[in-house]
Amino acid sequence: MIKHYKTIVLSDTHVGSRWSKTKEIIEFLNTHTCDNLILAGDIIDGWSLQRGSKRWTEEHSNFVKKLLDLHHTTKIIYVIGNHDEFMKKISPFTFFNISIRKDYIYESNGKRFFVLHGDIFDHITSSLSWLAKIGDIGYSILLWINRRYNIKRQKKGLPYYSIAQEIKAKVKVSVSYISDFEKHLVEVAKRNNCDGVICGHIHHAEKKHIGDIMYLNSGDWVESLTALTEDYRGNWNVLSMVENSMEEENEIYEKVLAGVV
Asked: Is 81 left (phi over 0), alpha (psi -120 to 50) or beta?
């Protein structure tokens, strides 16, 4: 059954990375349609492609083809993140119904939302890109461990468990970072006379008010499989598409171990 929304926001799909749920993203876009599709950064993972950690596959090309198909009926706003920063060379750029920008103001139901990826408020990402890329490799290793761990959990009949998300939730430094990140983005919304901010970057989906500003984060499609949706009344929600089944995950893991992927 197809569900239609006024607006859908996706970010941090990291297409081109071995960890991207590209097939699931395409399936999501096939069953969830919208008038406006906002891509809030890190859609194409240029860092992974540069490292050569995974070749560009037919599945990744199918994702691009899907976006090109969607532009006939959907307005697509692509806001650039740090992993797809190579696209800054052509921004701002509009072709057909697709707009590529560094940031964007989305107006809906009498409200203004400042849309950006959020990496400009990450000191390591913006000032020490070499260190951020080392951290990205570390995160990839953590995801590999996480997925091997979940293979064993599945065999025991246990549900998916995210080590990375648990670390973020429990480590005080991470909690403080997320809080500071949210406050910075709320301030930029205020400075631009907006009622809310829409972002990604930290892989932590959220919908809440900070003071009189609505903070919306679309999460990621590496682990969480989350999106933001807006109905025609201007109501926003976080939509999670995580599935307990790990059968397809096992196939990916074995390919990674065999050096195929």
From this structure: beta
CA atoms within 13 A on the CB side of 9: 29
With beta carbons less than 8 A apart as the criterion, state whether 59 and 16 touch: no
> Which pLDDT tens digit goes with each residue over 202-241?
888 999 999 999 999 999 998 889 999 999 999 999 999 8
Q: Specify the CATH number for 3-258; select among 3.40.50.150, 3.40.50.1240, 1.10.3720.10, 3.60.21.10.
A: 3.60.21.10
**What is the per-residue DSSP string for 129-161?**
HHHHHHHHHHHHHHHHHHHHHHHHHHHTTPPP-
Write down the residue that tokens 């598409």 correspond to: 241
Q: Residue 42: its pLDDT value, please?
A: 93
Residues in the chain: 261
pTM, entire model: 0.74
- Segments of the chain with pLDDT less than 50: 123-135, 171-173, 175, 244-250, 252-253, 256, 260-261
**In sequence order, what are the beta bridge partners of 8?**
37, 229
- What distance, in Å, lies between the first and last C-alpha atoms of the chain? 33
